[in-house]
């Protein structure tokens, strides 16, 4: 359950402006050059899916590396406790403080229908986390996770799992995005009982299956997702820039397999372009 809740949060962060040169359709990239003794690999994941089977080229990349680094150290036993501290709104704010009575009734109905409980029991939880708790309802199948599969491989190979950022770094994003903006997405989802979200997520899964990381970036500009469209700098760009020296440090010490949400790969401020700008040779591993 701890890891599942964390996956919801990661998905919220990955659901950039589209002005950079388009990249090849690939979710796996090889990192070489710039003083590296051996290559490392960058893999774009989707945090919840129906099929998280690892392709042979991904398995080969895992075999050629000796460390797995994800966005967060998801194997940290203290992570759930740290996350729980950041779930709640500050200043004793509640959901009812942010919406009209009519919109609150819609949200409450949404939770009763889909979660079997009233949102009144979660009144002081940040809207982003409430939205994330509904993500499994977007799937028409049992939920799987690429992160979980990568962790399984790491354990089987007696390798450590590390993170590119701390839970505090990630949770600060949900303080930086105003609650009033976060709640707009939840109200919209409540109005049609997740119909638009389900259709959009189906498209996203199709894009991921075809490894079209450029199209995934384009979806980030959907104005129906206010918090994502307006705060891409906090959700993607700033984090990508912060990751580059950390990726470089890991890769110099040992060949490393990096797994991040696929929405972080493409775009002008995507990880691939930023690594190239830092002097690395980053090439698509094509099937």
Description of the molecule:
- The chain is an alpha/beta fold and 287 residues long.
- It has one domain.
- It has 14 helices and six strands.
- The longest helix has 22 residues, at 232-253.
- The two termini are 34 Å apart.
- Mean pLDDT is 90; it is low at 1-5 and 15-20.
- Keywords: Signal.
Instruction: Let me know the largest β-sheet.
Output: 6 strands, mixed
Rg estimate, integer Å: 19 Å
Q: Estimate percent helicity.
A: 40-55%
Total strand count, please?
A: 6
Entry summary:
This protein is an alpha/beta fold. The protein contains 14 helices and 6 strands.
Give the secondary structure arrangement, pairings included.
Layout: H1 2-14, E1 28-32, E2 40-45, H2 56-63, E3 67-70, H3 79-84, H4 95-98, H5 101-115, H6 127-133, H7 146-156, E4 161-163, H8 167-176, H9 179-191, H10 195-209, H11 213-219, H12 226-230, H13 232-253, E5 256-261, H14 271-277, E6 281-284
Parallel strand pairs: 2-5, 3-4, 3-5
Antiparallel strand pairs: 1-2, 1-6
Helix pairs in contact: 1-6, 5-9, 6-9
Q: Features of this protein?
A:
single chain; 287 residues; alpha/beta; 50% helix; globular; disordered N terminus
